[in-house]
Amino acid sequence: MGFRALGVTCAVFVGVWVLTSGKDAAPPTTTTSAFCKIIWLIGVPCTEVNSAIVTQIKAMGSYTLGSVTSMAVQANHTSGVGQIESVNFTMAPTSVILGCHVQGTSVSAVWYSLFDNGINFCNLRNVIKGSGLYKAPGFLEFTNEWLCLGCGFSAC
């Protein structure tokens, strides 16, 4: 039982560190559009994560794939009402679990979309879920209402 508590404590510590580490893809602090930032820890190499994300985005009709590098994927999502959101995934290898630290951001392009009913959350979540990465070993997800407007009441 002591090892389980230690493992949970370590996971919480890593999650807090990841969320407060100041990575460069954080949404602007003065944004007037809806946004979402999610951090995932995934126990597979970043090359596999990148490939799964690109394959899933290509398979989803409402996404347009933009630039792709070995550690970043950019796309645009067009909602059913024609609203466009910029969707980005950045990856960095982790040494703790020999896996991948993934940061996803989705930002609406229009100023009046501050409360988007979780559309930006679903943009990110649907790619990760559709790709099957949520079933990968060591999968952990970190976000909250401060980082992802509407994540608490979204229906993806």
Beginning-to-end CA distance, first to last residue: 36 Å
CATH architecture: 2-Layer Sandwich
Largest sheet: 6 strands, antiparallel
Strand order of the largest sheet: 2-3-4-5-1-6
Radius of gyration from the alpha-carbon trace, in angstroms: 15 Å
Q: How many individual β-strands?
A: 6
Tell me the number of structural domains: 1
Number of helices in the DSSP assignment: 3
- Helical fraction equals 25-40%
CATH homologous superfamily heading: Kinase associated domain 1, KA1
Q: Beta fraction of the residues?
A: 25-35%
N-to-C series of helices and strands: HEHEEEEHE
Overall average residue pLDDT: 80
Q: Any idea of the CATH class?
A: Alpha Beta
Segments where pLDDT lies below 50 for 5+ residues? Answer: 1-31
The structure class reads alpha+beta
The best one-word shape is: globular
Which assembly state applies to the chains in this document?
single chain
Query: What is the CATH T-level topology?
Result: TATA-Binding Protein
Q: Can you describe this structure in just a few lines?
A:
Keywords: Signal. The chain is an alpha+beta fold and 156 residues long. It has 3 helices and 6 strands.
Protein described:
Residues 1-25 form the signal peptide. Keywords: Signal. This protein has 156 residues and is an alpha+beta fold. It has one domain (32-153): 2-Layer Sandwich (TATA-Binding Protein), CATH 3.30.310. The chain has 3 helices and 6 strands; from the N terminus they run αβαββββαβ. It has a 6-stranded antiparallel sheet, sandwiched between helices. β3 and β4 (84-93) form a beta hairpin. The longest helix is centred in the first third of the chain and has 18 residues, at 2-19. It is globular.
